[in-house]
Specification:
The chain is an all-alpha fold. It contains 3 helices and no strands.
C-alpha cells in the first residue's frame, strides 16, 4: 500500500505488475492494451448501472401509482 508507505516515510517500491511489464517485450504495448480494456470494461459497467437505475425508477413509479 503505497499511501501507507508514504505516511510512514518508507521508500516506495514498484508493484509486482509494474516489474513484470518492464521485463516483457513490448511492455508499453501491454500497458496500452490493459488501459484500453479498462476503459471498455468501465464504460460497459456504467451503461449497465444506468439501465439498472432506469429500471429501479420505473419500479418506483409503478409502486407509487398503486
Amino acid at each position: 500500500m503505497k499511501w501507507v508507505d508514504r505516511l510512514m516515510g518508507l521508500p516506495i517500491e514498484e508493484s509486482p505488475v509494474e516489474k513484470v511489464i518492464e521485463h516483457l517485450p513490448n511492455g508499453g504495448e501491454v500497458n496500452k492494451v490493459y488501459e484500453a480494456r479498462w476503459v471498455w470494461y468501465h464504460t460497459i459497467l456504467a451503461v449497465e448501472i444506468f439501465f439498472t437505475n432506469i429500471l429501479l425508477l420505473a419500479i418506483l413509479v409503478v409502486v407509487s401509482l398503486k
